[in-house]
Amino acid sequence: MEHEILIVDDEPDIRFLLAGILEDDGYLTREAANSDEAIRLFRESRPSLVILDIWLQNSQLDGMALLKLFKEQRPDVPVIMISGHGTIETAVSSLHHGAYDFLEKPFQTDRLLVIVRRALEAARLRKENAELRLRAGEQGTLMGDSALINALRGQISRVAPTNSRVLISGPAGAGKEVVARMIHAQSKRAEGPFVVLNCAALAPDHFEEELFGVEGSEGKPGRPGLLERAHKGTLLLDEVADMPLEIQGKIVRALQINTFERLGGTHSMKVDVRVLAATSRDLQAEITTRHFREDLYYRLAVVPLQVPSLAERPEDIPMLAQYFLESCARSSGLPVRTLSVDALACLQTYDWPGNIRELRNLMERMLIMLPAGEGEQSNIIRAEMLPDIVREGAPSMTCLTAEADVMSLPLREARDHFETQYLQVQLMRFGGNISRTANFVCMERSALHRKLKQLGVTQEDRSAAQSARSGQEAK
């Protein structure tokens, strides 16, 4: 990512010298001769670093006053102070007010470049650490090997390197923010900030302030909004359908010209932000009912991506469930548990209205609430330990109780009873797919057909998973 540096000095020769040194080292530069130009460029160009002269001739504000102003408006931007008449007192004072370092004129080129690199790196690390704290515990990538997830990964890899806006659709809890983070991480903006605005959690009268920020007045410092904080990075508008119509109109304009004004301000702010949007609602239906602007939809949905529900990819559930068990065990200091085959069959037949979020919460609850035991077998989570709502749609073998005692049956009947329920479980696991079931139970496809016919497992039984899932999806 290219860094832009604002040079503020009243001497043209010094500005020319600094610009030449920095541009030769690969930086972009802007120059200001007085405080008015400096304030305007600081707001418009959003520099990564400022080199600021303490003594500014013919200027309303001197360098120290500008330093205070810059640190109030954007405390994350490092400022290097320079002066040809510096003293220890002025150097200490500038550092006390937030300057990164102080250089006396004439300065050595190598020392200047070293300080600039260190200042930019320190700022990058601060942003990175702040973001890591915010997303601690967040899942950072899509997990699973299903065809739907592999296709989505391919779409992400194609769209991420571009600067196109992306509309990410999918049910609540399916992983839309994970997709947005993957797009950011694989983009050219990966070193920039990733900022999230949760439109569903924000009061309508706070949207403008949160997005665009507030201009300072009467000695009170201004506050940057999320658009400013996302400069050179990515802004995710999560649950964008909940954004008020008035703000939708303002964001359309901001997206069109890449400039905006803070609340109460008169100066235009220019930003370089990639905007992603996520929604669990049908935006076309929202447009029809006039709850969402059509022009905003077409600006956001340059590339639409659809995140599948967990019910659409049951083959990914075993991997996800075990991952959540292990990650929760690490964070809480509890022993790792595993899921039995019958428990996995129950999980794969449940419809998961809360999607991945619901699965993660259930695994955490099971890990914490189940009593600890001794030995390997005591750390296995079995079907009967799962909540009733998860087990109710599973085949009978996953729900055996003391009343279903096969020991009371003759050997042949007990074996047939076991084989029937065993094969029903496996068919349920693989959605009624005979080929995949035969492969798993190590039987030829034709032999499995004969066995099912012998046991009286009908076509209706074999398609139970498919019909059950179709019924869930139709609700």
UniProtKB/TrEMBL annotation:
Sorted UniProt keywords: Activator, ATP-binding, DNA-binding, Nucleotide-binding, Phosphoprotein, Transcription, Transcription regulation, Two-component regulatory system
InterPro entries tied to this protein: AAA+_ATPase, AAA_lid_NorR, CheY-like_superfamily, Homeodomain-like_sf, HTH_Fis, P-loop_NTPase, Sig_transdc_resp-reg_receiver, Sigma_54_int
Domain Response regulatory as annotated: residue spans: 4-120
Residues bearing PTM 4-aspartylphosphate: D53
Domain Sigma-54 factor interaction span(s) in chain numbering: 142-368
Protein name: Sigma-54 dependent transcriptional regulator
Species this protein is from: Bombella pollinis
Lineage of the organism: Bacteria, Pseudomonadati, Pseudomonadota, Alphaproteobacteria, Acetobacterales
